[in-house]
Backbone:
């Protein structure tokens, strides 16, 4: 077996003198090269085409018809890897410079000494080897870049590369003040230098240049400056990544919701930091999330409507029955039953309003420890003997922004749900303590824990939905926990539920401390008799509901008031113009067309001393603002006869107002009034027997 010899490098000697060509060829052969000789340019080009020499020794002068510089140029053009060395007997510095400028790699003068030729050969072969390695490295680099580009363009995320040099230059010059010195400056703080195909499609750009012209400022809009501030702070503090969901814009005007992950790296060799921003399009996902929330909301509304219809049909059946019984017998017991059903209607309405968080009016506060103490006995009677109750509280809990009635309703609703979850008995613990809530700061935590059957995640996620219940028909309305949710949310608190099947349930309520001293709403209150009507007092009643309008007219007229009733603000203005003035405007808040408060403002432009009292079942925020509601002299529906007549007389005796509804400017009482407007001999407070309505009308 023979070992194949390594192929020898080829060499070409070009000289029109055969003796010189032969001697040079012999010297090159001694260096292990395979040598060809040529006497003319044509012959040299032909040999080079066949063998592609590693080295070519070319005589500078090849006779009258040829030139070594021209041949060198043609050889380098055809074979860039061939090392060309010019050889001449007419050597000078100028000719050497001309040879190198003409494309030659080296220069020899005749007579050529063997040691000089050997040095040139070795240098030439080393140059050829390095050139080959460089070509191989460049080819590998091109392949690597092609692989990177393919991966860069085919990755499913949108990737944008940016130069942060301008941003950090601005920070170097102006510090944090750079973010407020010039509003337009963030547009040029990040230069987009590259983007993959997914990014171009996402942002609607035809090329990276088009996206670069749009810039990060165009993509992120006003949010961009704050994001860059966050990026700069994170980078200077040692962090390298910023992640957030952002609102963005495309070149074709689309609004996008994107998950952005921006990685900041130091530039090579101390260059400016670079940014790699990776975007994932969440727009469709967020649209689907919104559609799901809307579907869940409509499902809840459907259950709510069904529950309301069920409960009110029962109540209306009772009202109709009691009314027919009272009509036949005139028995006081039947009338009392009728009033009781009406109170139950008011309670249901109050619970619905609490759930809908319309209780944004002036809030009352109560001492939590006092409310716990007062409610404990009621809880024990409600739970029964088979449920052991323990109540613990930190000393000096202070006041919370809930009334005693609301706190009692919260405790009772949670206790009843816990009792129903322990049909065989168990333990219920109620604990109140001061805590530091990471979300809201100093707070009061109320924890209600039972040893019942617990809930799975799906059930626990729905416990605050209206009319959602796991109880059987007739065993619950599903409004208990939704009412708790509304009460706590309206007070600025939050609720957490921790439960698992077979491990019981713990409900934690976090409430902020009250800003005002507590006041009691559970104290005994007297029920006053209706004060007499001032002589000659007249009332303009504006109510669009016919039955309510008729009741108001009957109640006021039976008590001695002169009453004019209309159904709209337009009719009220006409009646005031034709039959007025009236001593009092009694109006519903929500009317067809112009609202009650707007009607009062219109009348005050004519009658600055106008007195007004408003009634309402509720007032949508789109019709009456919360600030305006706070200023209204308002009596919520439903109300008893004594409550209405008390409030009417109080409105007549109060100082007149030039504002929106509250009485501030003093004025003499209406003609014929026998009571001083500043200190009436009677007081009017809510009836203790009436169900307390929601604080919001």
Residues:
């Amino acid at each position: 077996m023979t070992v194949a010899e390594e192929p020898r490098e080829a060499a070409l000697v070009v000289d029109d003198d055969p003796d010189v060509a032969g001697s040079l060829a012999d010297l090159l052969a001694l260096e292990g090269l395979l040598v060809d000789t040529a006497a003319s340019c044509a012959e040299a080009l032909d040999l080079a085409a066949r063998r592609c020499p590693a080295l070519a020794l070319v005589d500078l002068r090849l006779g009258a018809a040829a030139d070594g510089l021209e041949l060198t140029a043609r050889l380098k053009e055809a074979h860039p890897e061939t090392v060309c060395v010019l050889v001449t007997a007419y050597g000078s510095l100028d000719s050497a410079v001309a040879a190198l400028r003409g494309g030659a790699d080296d220069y020899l003068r005749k007579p050529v000494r063997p040691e000089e030729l050997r040095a040139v050969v070795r240098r030439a072969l080393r140059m050829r080897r390095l050139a080959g390695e460089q070509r191989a490295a460049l080819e590998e680099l091109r392949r690597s870049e092609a692989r990177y580009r393919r991966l860069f363009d085919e990755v499913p995320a949108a990737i944008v590369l940016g130069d942060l040099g301008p941003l950090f230059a601005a920070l170097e010059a102006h510090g944090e003040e750079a973010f407020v010195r010039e509003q337009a400056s963030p547009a040029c703080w990040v230069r987009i230098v590259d983007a993959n195909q997914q990014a171009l499609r996402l942002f609607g750009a035809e090329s990276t240049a088009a996206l670069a012209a749009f810039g990060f400022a165009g993509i992120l809009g006003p949010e961009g400056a704050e994001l860059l501030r966050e990026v700069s702070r994170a980078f200077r503090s040692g962090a390298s990544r910023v992640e957030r969901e952002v609102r963005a814009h495309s070149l074709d005007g689309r609004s996008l919701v994107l998950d952005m992950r921006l990685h900041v790296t130091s530039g090579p060799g101390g260059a400016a930091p670079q940014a790699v921003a990776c975007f994932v399009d969440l727009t469709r996902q967020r649209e689907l999330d919104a559609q799901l929330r809307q579907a869940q909301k409509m499902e809840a509304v459907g259950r709510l409507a069904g529950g309301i219809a069920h409960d009110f049909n029962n109540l209306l059946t009772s009202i109709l029955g009691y009314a027919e019984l009272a009509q036949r017998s005139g028995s006081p017991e039947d009338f009392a039953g009728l009033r009781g059903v009406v109170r139950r209607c008011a309670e249901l309405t109050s619970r619905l309003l609490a759930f809908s968080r319309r209780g944004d009016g002036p809030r009352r506060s109560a001492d939590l420890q006092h409310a716990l103490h007062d409610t404990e006995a009621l809880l024990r009677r409600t739970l029964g003997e088979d449920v052991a109750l323990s109540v613990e509280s930190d000393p000096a809990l202070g006041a919370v922004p809930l009334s005693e009635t609301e706190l009692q309703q919260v405790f009772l609703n949670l206790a009843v749900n816990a009792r129903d979850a322990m049909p065989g008995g168990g333990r219920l613990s109620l604990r109140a303590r001061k805590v530091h809530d990471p979300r809201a700061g100093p707070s009061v935590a109320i924890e209600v824990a039972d040893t019942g059957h617990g809930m799975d995640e799906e059930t626990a996620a729905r416990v605050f939905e209206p009319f959602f219940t796991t109880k059987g028909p007739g065993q619950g309305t599903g409004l208990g926990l939704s009412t708790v949710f509304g009460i706590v949310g309206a007070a600025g608190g939050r609720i957490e539920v921790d439960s698992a099947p077979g491990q019981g349930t713990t409900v934690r309520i976090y409430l902020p401390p009250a800003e005002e001293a507590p006041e009691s709403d559970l104290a005994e209150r007297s029920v006053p008799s209706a004060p007499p009507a001032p002589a000659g007092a007249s009332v303009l009643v504006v109510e669009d509901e016919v039955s309510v309008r008729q009741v108001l007219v009957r109640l006021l007229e039976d008590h001695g008031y002169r009453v004019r009733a209309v159904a709209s603000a337009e009719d009220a203005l006409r009646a005031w113009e034709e039959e007025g003035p009236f001593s009092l405007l009694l109006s519903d808040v929500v009317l067809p067309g112009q609202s009650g408060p707007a009607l009062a403002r219109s009348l005050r432009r004519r009658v600055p001393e106008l007195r007004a009292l408003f009634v309402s079942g509720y007032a949508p925020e789109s019709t009456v603002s919360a600030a305006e509601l706070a200023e209204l002299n308002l009596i919520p529906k439903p109300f008893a006869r004594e409550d209405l007549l008390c409030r009417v007389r109080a409105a007549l005796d109060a100082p007149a107002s030039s504002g929106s509804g509250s009485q501030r400017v003093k004025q003499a009482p209406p003609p014929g009034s026998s009571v001083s407007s500043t200190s009436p001999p009677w007081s009017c407070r809510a009836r203790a027997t009436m169900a307390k309505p929601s604080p919001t009308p």
